[in-house]
Amino acid sequence: MKHRLWKTCIGGFTAAVFCVVTGAQSFGADAKSLEDMEKELNALRASVSALTEQIETVKQEKTVAAVSSDTKEDVEALKNEVSTLKEEMKTAAQAEQAIKAEDIAGNVYSEFAKKVKLGGQIRTRAEYANGFYQVPTSNATLGGATGIVGRGKSTDDDYVMNQTRLWADADVNEHLRVFIQLQDARVFGAEGTTVGFANPGVENSIFDLHQGYFDIKQLFDLPLTVRVGRQEIIWGDHRVIGNFVWSNVGRVFDGGRIMWDTDAIHAETFAVKVDEDGLFATDGDDSSDETAYAAQLAFKKLVPGALLELMYIHKNDQDSLANVATGSGYAVPGDGPVEIHDIGARIDGKVPNLEAIDYTLESHGQFGDYGDQNQKAWAFAGRVGYTFKDLAWTPRFGFEYDYASGDDDQDDNDHETFDNLYPTNHWQGNYGFIDLLSWQNMHDFRWNVKVVPTNKLTVQVDYHYYLLAQEEDGWYLANGTLAVPRPGVGYDDDSDDLAQEVDLTVSYQLYKNIGILAGYSFFKAEDWIKDNIDDIDTSWGYLQTTVTF
User: Which spans of this chain does the record mark as coiled coil (predicted)?
Assistant: First the structure.
């Protein structure tokens, strides 16, 4: 029995010593993971358990048979070894608690890394246009961005735009969020060469910080957020404040924003710098910066089934030499700045107990200074639709009417043309997807139908009929500039019929992260265009793919 017990103890002792040595080496190695250390510690515990069982067996044998002094010594040695192993195990456990994951493999496993979301998007759009069009370039190298002067019946072009965005969104803690978005916006071939940049002063600027801001959330433990930095701002249907998302570059605002958000209301105010010209204007008299200040109060439950928004916007362009008033011919350089106060309201929702009917109403009034004239203008937009949810393809039929005031007398000291401010006019095809009109001096009668043949496919057809509010005022493009400069003798005002437009839009979600958008538009010139420019119709088509990851 003595020899059998001895062999058993020697085997157990050897296993235990091996576990201790291996465990000690593993905890001292930088390359070991916590998972490996845990496995070795468990093996060490198993060895101690086996030795304890052997001791209990020896105790039981001692009660039924006499044991020799050598056996007693063996048992005592086993007890000492078990005690030593327990101390080793205690030391190993303490080492396990002290070692952190970032001590072993850097900070990639840190808690902060888990709070950072990375993403990106690549959007490529090919376009073709014949007739009137504005090239939506990422820079000034291709031209055609300020008007349609010189366009002829056979004028056409095709181009491919590529927009790439990468972003990081980090919730640092419960009170701090940081968002950074980089963007590269280019037109294929605009560099003029496949090596380097053809126009270093322009082309190198196509890569930029699109957004970069931080949020201080739950300020003072209230539903209050302060956002500071470069950011996109969108209000409602983008009619007066939008991110110009259709553009290859997009619109962002540099400034600060304060937001209060609860289940019942949303309130916000912001102050942004649109143009920073330094201490002195070009005439040396004063600052010529452009700033915008705005506030919004939205009621989420005040109107059943609808959101009610009240808005105030202050556009302050202190450049008296080159502002929108001089650009539209209502002022000459030096007449004065443009300061417009805009008060508006918007309601968007569905009819209670009849959710098949959706509607949106929005209206704005403006006053202030427009050069040396007084700004007095207003605008209205109304949209209603009915969705047949029980029919195949769930068709929605809609009607919309948009109006923006125009000016009938350039010399009466009142400027009555509505200022479209900072919109995304392409959004939802507000005034036609071809982007040849803005919310200025216009009537737009729109009918549309949308069907959803499958859960991936959406098809929409729109028809627009455009009139000018005032024939003497002119035709304003989507970017707010006149289609043709105002002649000294004024426009031919025999007719207010401007144009008709038909849009076909097809959207298909190929896969979860891959979307395809295609469209075709036809813009037919009517009497005002024929009398003041030429009998020119426009065709425009595009194919866009968006990959998000």
Answer: 34-95
As a whole number of angstroms, the distance between CA 366 and CA 218 comes to 35
Q: Name beta bridge partners: 547.
A: 122, 514
* 3-state SS, one letter per residue, for 476-542: ECCCCCECCCCCCCCCCCCCCEEEEEEEEEEEEEEECCEEEEEEEEEEEECHHHHHHCCCCCEEEEE
- 414-415 and 373-387: which strand pairing? parallel
Q: Band the pLDDT of 83: cuts 50, 70, 90.
A: confident
Q: Nearest CA to 339 among 300, 364, 303, 367?
A: 367
Residue where the block lists tokens 């990468």: 166
Angle at 437 between CA 432 and CA 442, to 5 degrees: 105
Helix axes 34-64, 2-28, angle to 10 degrees: 160
Going from N- to C-terminal start, the domains of the chain cover 2-104, 119-548
Round to whole Å and give the CA distance between 446 and 463.
6
Fold of 119-548: Porin (2.40.160)
Alpha helices (H) in 238-365, listed in sequence order: 324-327
**For residue 273, which of 313, 235, 238, 315 has the smallest C-alpha distance?**
315
> In terms of DSSP H, where are the helices of 65-141?
69-98, 101-105
Highest mean pLDDT among 269-283, 316-330, 379-393: 379-393
- Write out pLDDT tens, residues 138-152: 444 444 434 454 455
Residue 281 pLDDT > 50: yes
The encoded tokens of residue 494 equal 């025999």
What is the helix, strand, coil percentage profile of the chain, to 5? 20, 40, 35
